[in-house]
Design brief:
Structural class: alpha/beta
CATH architecture: Alpha-Beta Barrel
Strand content: 5-15%
Number of helices: 12
Order of helices and strands: EHEHEHHEHEHHEEHEHHHEH
Radius of gyration: 18 Å
Helix content: 40-55%
Distance between the termini: 13 Å
Largest sheet: 9 strands, parallel
């Protein structure tokens, strides 16, 4: 059995992205969205989500390129005086690795982000993170603990087949090989921890190595390569590239990713290949096994 889950990340970052999530959910194949609880447009995203009861929501845990939920005085070593995290992923990753004393602050902040989503009355079905930082070896055990503590059944494992990704788009192939190998190693450990905790996770994933370029043609080429099990495909759609979206990722082809989620050709290709479109809530409620 082959199953695919389409997820839009950064829900709450901007009105252009929020609008794309609504359109792709109502008229396309999008069934999951990852809420960035401190995004500039999060209140709009929450209001929209309340009118979309079939949209499966997760929390897009943020420890980089964003703001904290907790005030700076509560996590003084994690953010600056304005509550901003580091912007550089490499610097942040090494800092979180070597400064073990940051972990208590990280745990408090991540818990506060989950609690913010729950306080809005939202059901949270999965966890992932901005730039997949939840796979960080020091942070992932904390995320597993929080998932269990708050009764969140699923996590994202960004375990992408880099060989397939390169065969579909060879742009930046050396970086894709390196990134693919690094995340494969991180996911091996993460998978063991997830299984031990009884958490659900995706078997396969695409979106990591072709970030921001998950176009209609890319998805059409990808469908024949989908493997048995659950494949998550994550995207960053947008109605247009507004100032906030352009600030963080000016190279993303957001309107093309939205078009891919709305594509009748992709939907038909999935049907011909006997690939079911699902979401993390349905995985949990139907007892669909992964791994």
């Amino acid at each position: 059995m082959k199953t695919v889950i389409f997820t839009a990340d950064d829900f709450g970052m901007s009105p252009a992205l929020n609008g794309a999530v609504v359109l792709a959910h109502r008229q396309g194949m999008l069934r999951c969205a990852s809420l960035m609880v401190t995004g500039p447009a999060v209140e709009q995203a929450v209001a929209l989500a309340r009118d979309l009861p079939e949209l499966c929501l997760g929390v897009h845990l943020t420890l980089i390129q964003g703001r904290s939920v907790l005030p700076p005085k509560d996590i003084p070593h994690l953010v600056d005086s304005q509550g901003n995290f580091f912007n550089n992923p490499v610097q942040a990753g090494w800092r979180y690795y070597w400064q073990k004393d940051l972990l208590p602050e990280i745990r408090r902040e991540l818990a506060a982000q989950i609690e913010a989503a729950l306080a809005w009355g939202l059901e949270v079905w999965f966890l992932n993170s901005h730039v997949n930082l939840h796979l960080h070896p020091g942070i992932f055990p904390v995320v597993v603990e929080l998932a269990k503590e708050y009764g969140i059944p699923a996590l994202r494992l960004p375990q992408e087949d880099w060989r397939t990704a390169i065969s579909l788009d060879a742009h930046g192939f050396l970086a894709k090989i390196a990134q693919g190998l690094i995340f494969a190693q991180l996911c091996r450990r993460a998978r063991r921890l997830s299984e031990a905790a009884g958490l659900l996770y995706n078997d396969h994933l695409f979106g990591l190595l072709n970030d921001g370029r998950m176009t209609e043609n890319y998805l059409l080429d990808l469908v024949p390569h989908l493997q048995p099990g659950v494949t998550e495909i994550y995207l960053h759609p947008g109605l247009y590239g507004d100032a906030e979206l352009t600030r963080w990722a000016p190279q993303y082809r957001r309107q093309e990713e939205l078009a891919a989620l709305l594509s009748h050709r992709v939907r038909e290709s999935l049907a011909v290949a006997a690939v079911e479109v699902s979401d993390f809530r349905e995985m949990f409620l139907t007892g669909l096994k992964t791994g």
